[in-house]
């Protein structure tokens, strides 16, 4: 008799299995809520695919998370370790954006889902207030084990997981005795002198006693299925929703007092658990310190508390957007869902026209027709809002046609918000949010979008400035590094330059290969201190000096010594590390001179590689009369010499020396037939997540001539 398949995927698709696996993880770790994030392959974004113990509305700011965002989960993936945040105070210190959006007491763990083939994403678990500040070694081991089981589930899946439009909500089943869930429990609640309500985690009323309905002034049938702050106008206050949110996230009891007109003060006690919130309603003769202010006539519509927190998150994300592409991602992933919009067009004002810099929800041909429209106030709403500085909102096509009858209709969108992006009176561009269905903009939405327009305008201005500097830096870097390396008989070569993952992407790392004669060549690699235009410019000067000295016949020690004196004459404040290697391809040997650079790796034959112990001299630019010892090593045929800069091995949280030794061990057993692929693998070994913090230059040399 054959055994049955009991794996999580046996009963359905891997997507069906992920939800129960998340619920098991929450139950098994004793957490109150959890979220499962998976990494998109097409772009560097984490998607929240399943949530447990938390309303999906709470997760709006986290449904699309850029891998570069400063969050516990991204740090966990970047460093491949469990990240623990034990209190809200610690969260505010380490991750202020998270603390601003979730201002509640809780503890959080983020664990990467590292599988055999790749890192699939991460698991986030949360505990209520009162949890230990630091988990025990057993708890840490259990969380890591749970993450590994989830990663194994994804490894074994026959196809990649799907990304739903909204995260799946997974229930954590709480065992209850049958007599606790029937008429007996309802009869018990009805006999109490106080009112009783039950809310689910979404805040909707699922049970109300007759006493509670009478105290609230609303029939039970009209209360069921509604949220209290929506069903009862006198509870329509952000404080009420905030108390509910605090109870859900912190799992701690909450109390507030509110005035039911005309003069009935009621106290609400909230008692949360994993399945919902029990609410006790009782009369209160005096106002308490937690009382809501009484309503005095009509008051302006208040923004929902959830949206307020989400906008705090959006504002923080806008300040961190680096380039225009990042800004479009923030608007598309954060602002569109917050307002239920489906389309985005972000344009920059340029020479009297609007140049589209990014979009969402439109076909490319429509964007092509819209790109470059003139800033004509009579033709487009965008021109009008930029001229007046006042946003324009159109609830349907008819409203748009009444005010702009000649505006081109190049899409099937049904409602629009045109937001002018203006800084100190200077038009920067226009942001258009659009809707697939007619949409009436409330006063709250208009006010919030108008405020966001100012933040988007400043972010767009910064992003365009960054992109222009980045383009300049990239062109400068391209001009200073060799476009191609010379082909030399007896030598195979591969080289790579990778800019830092952040910043201007310009630095002082350089490499070169010089043909000296028919059997002699010189390889050089170096690193100028800093990441700036000045560093790149000095790098160009150093590279030119070394090229001139080497081709003039100088020995390795003379090349570095004379370059060092040149730097002293230039009186530069920047220091330079450099490794110069003279290759004798006829005699199969290499002579090395090192000015404070990382030691090279040499694989003399398969399964035998080591770190070359070449005595280094001081950095270039330290002392004008420094000497640089020369070390000579054999370079037999098929030997591989690896030169690299410190960006390859200086990994946060790791000792550079250990990383160098690990790369030497990898080089010994690696397939060296394809040097380009070997570089990819070496970089991937040192930086599995790919987010290297410094420039990286790698130069691989393989002797291929016959033995003598």
Descriptive notes:
- With 708 residues, the chain is of the alpha+beta class.
- The chain contains 20 helices and 29 strands.
- Strand 8 and strand 9 (205-208) form a beta hairpin.
- The chain starts with 13 loop residues before the first helix and ends in a 5-residue tail after the last strand.
- The model is unreliable at 1-12, 175-180 and 293-303 (pLDDT under 50).
Characterize the overall form. globular
User: Which value, in Å, is the CA radius of gyration?
Assistant: 32 Å
Number of strands: 29
**End-to-end Cα distance:** 67 Å
Mean pLDDT: 83
Main sheet record? 7 strands, mixed
Tally the helices: what do you get? 20
**Poorly predicted ranges (pLDDT <50, ≥5 residues)?**
1-12, 175-180, 293-303
Percent range for helical residues? Answer: 25-40%
Structural class: alpha+beta
Strand content: 25-35%
């Amino acid at each position: 008799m054959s055994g049955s398949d009991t794996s999580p995927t046996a009963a359905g698709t891997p997507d069906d299995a992920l939800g129960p696996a998340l619920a098991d993880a929450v139950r098994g770790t004793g957490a109150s809520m959890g979220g499962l994030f998976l990494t998109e392959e097409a772009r560097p974004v984490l998607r929240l695919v399943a949530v447990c113990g938390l309303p999906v509305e709470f997760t709006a700011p986290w449904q699309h998370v850029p891998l570069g965002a400063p969050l516990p989960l991204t740090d966990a993936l970047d460093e491949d370790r469990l990240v623990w945040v034990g209190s809200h105070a610690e969260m505010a210190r380490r991750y202020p954006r998270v603390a601003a959006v979730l201002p509640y007491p809780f503890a959080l763990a983020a664990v990467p889902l590292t599988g055999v083939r790749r890192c699939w994403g991460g698991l986030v678990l949360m505990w209520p207030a009162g949890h230990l500040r630091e988990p025990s070694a057993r708890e840490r081991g259990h969380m890591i084990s749970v993450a590994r089981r989830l990663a194994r589930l994804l490894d074994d899946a026959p196809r990649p997981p799907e990304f739903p439009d909204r995260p799946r909500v997974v229930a954590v089943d709480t065992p209850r005795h049958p007599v606790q869930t029937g008429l007996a429990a309802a009869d018990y609640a009805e006999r109490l002198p106080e009112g009783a309500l039950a809310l689910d985690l979404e805040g909707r009323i699922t049970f109300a006693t007759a006493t509670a309905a009478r105290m609230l002034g609303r029939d039970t049938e009209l209360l069921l299925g509604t949220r209290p702050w929506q069903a009862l106008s006198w509870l329509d206050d952000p404080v009420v929703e905030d108390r509910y949110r605090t109870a859900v996230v912190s799992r701690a009891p909450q109390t507030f007092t509110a005035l039911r007109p005309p003069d009935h003060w009621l106290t609400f006690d909230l008692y949360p658990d994993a399945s919902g919130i029990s609410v006790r309603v009782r009369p209160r003769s005096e106002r308490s310190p937690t009382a809501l202010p009484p309503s005095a006539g009509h008051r302006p519509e208040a923004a929902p508390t959830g949206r307020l927190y989400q906008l705090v998150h959006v504002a923080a994300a806008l300040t961190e957007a680096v380039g225009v592409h990042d800004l479009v991602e923030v608007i598309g992933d954060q602002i569109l869902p917050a307002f239920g919009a489906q389309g985005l067009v972000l344009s920059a004002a340029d020479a009297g026209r609007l140049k589209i810099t990014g979009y969402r929800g439109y076909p490319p041909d429509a964007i092509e027709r819209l790109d470059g429209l003139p800033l004509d106030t009579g033709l487009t709403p965008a021109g009008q809002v930029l001229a007046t500085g006042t946003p324009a909102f159109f609830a349907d096509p008819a409203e748009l046609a009444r005010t702009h009858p000649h505006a081109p209709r190049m899409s099937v969108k049904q409602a629009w918000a045109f937001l002018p992006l203006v800084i100190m009176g200077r038009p920067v561009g226009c942001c258009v949010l659009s809707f697939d269905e007619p949409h009436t903009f409330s006063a709250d939405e208009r006010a919030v979008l108008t405020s966001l327009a100012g933040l988007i305008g400043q972010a767009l201005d910064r992003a365009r400035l960054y992109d222009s500097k980045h383009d300049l830096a990239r062109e400068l870097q391209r001009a200073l590094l060799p476009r191609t390396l010379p082909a030399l008989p007896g030598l195979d070569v591969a080289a790579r330059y990778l800019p830092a993952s952040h910043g201007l992407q310009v630095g002082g790392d350089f490499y070169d290969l010089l043909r000296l004669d028919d059997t002699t060549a010189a390889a050089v690699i170096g690193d100028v201190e800093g990441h700036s235009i000045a560093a790149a410019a000095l790098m160009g000067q150093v590279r030119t000096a070394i090229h001139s000295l080497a081709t003039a016949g100088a020995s390795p020690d003379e090349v570095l010594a004379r370059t060092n004196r040149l730097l002293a004459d230039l009186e530069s404040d920047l220091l330079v590390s450099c490794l110069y290697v003279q290759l004798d391809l006829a005699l199969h040997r290499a002579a090395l001179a090192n000015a404070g650079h990382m030691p090279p790796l040499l694989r003399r034959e398969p399964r035998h590689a080591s770190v070359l112990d070449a005595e280094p001299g001081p950095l270039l630019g330290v002392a004008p009369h420094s000497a640089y010892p020369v070390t000579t090593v054999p370079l037999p045929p098929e030997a591989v010499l690896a030169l690299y800069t410190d960006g390859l091995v200086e990994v946060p949280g790791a000792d550079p020396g250990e990383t160098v030794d690990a790369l030497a061990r990898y080089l010994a057993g690696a397939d060296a037939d394809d040097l380009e692929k070997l570089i990819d693998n070496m970089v991937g070994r040192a930086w599995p997540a790919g987010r290297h913090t410094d420039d990286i230059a790698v130069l691989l040399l393989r002797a291929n001539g016959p033995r003598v």
